[in-house]
Amino acid sequence: MLNFLQGFSYGLFLSCIPWFIVGLLNPRLAVPTLQPSRWQVVLRYWLVLPGASFLIWLTSLWGGFGPSLGGWIAGLAAVAVALPVERWWHRWRAKRADRQGQAAAAAAARAERERGVAQLDPESPPADADELVKVQCVAKGILLRAGCDQHAGQADRLYSRYQRLRGLLDRRFGEGELASQRGHAVVREVVAAATERLQAIATQADGLASLDEGYARRRLDGAEIDPTEAKALRRRLELIAETRARLEQMVSENETALTALDELAMALSRLDTSKPRHAVSTERALVELQRFQDRTIDYTHSARRAEGQKR
Fold first, then answer.
1. Which one of 42, 75, 236, 259 is CB 3.0 to 4.6 Å from 12, fit for a cystine?
2. Three-class SS of residue 198?
3. Are 130 and 111 in contact (CB under 8 A)?
4. Closest CA relative to residue 202, chosen from 241, 155, 157
5. pLDDT (tens digit per residue) in 88-97
């Protein structure tokens, strides 16, 4: 055994020289970490492994001098065998950390869920659901399957605001009153626009889930690849980043719509039909909600024209 360790120490020490040179030329070939650098090459092949081989050689001298051929061969092949194993271990740790981060984000999203928000079942919409609510259920199901739990909650919040405002309008006004009809029309228009954005969020999130960002990064960080493939992979990463930016923009627009619906709900809650002053505040809330919807439509049209010109 000591003879084997002596041979192993010699083989390991000699193998550090070519791996050190290769690592200086391309650290990705000699260092198994996800973000390799030349400092890691120096540390690994100039200090750590030569020091380990020296300690192995020093402790094996108790049995006398006589390195074995098998030890030499094992020492020379040790780095080549260890590198793929270490790379797999680093990637496994990165994937586990990513899964833990996603689980923590989902738990935080559940903890931050708004009180009083009804939960839609994508597989079983409410019995009195209209077309908007059914679309919200479908969008929520797509988002859940795509792993976007934080965005799927918007469907529940949008549905809850929609139901709450419809109930408030029915309780505050008579069925045939002009204010009731106008309120229902404006609320439905705003919710329909937000639902359309939610549907777009679900569609793009579903497409984003099919793109393997990790594979593209591994290919770009790996050995030398064809320039055409590298260009395609970089474009794929740009596409993923652009899609995420659009998703965040649409999510923010829906949050603004939810706030506008909350403002109208508060105005309706304070409404006393016997006092004209409160009716005026409700009328103002409806006007502001209509203006918000008009601005959203104008922004959507301008964004689509800009995107069309870009293409």
1. 75
2. helix
3. no
4. 155
5. 998 898 888 8
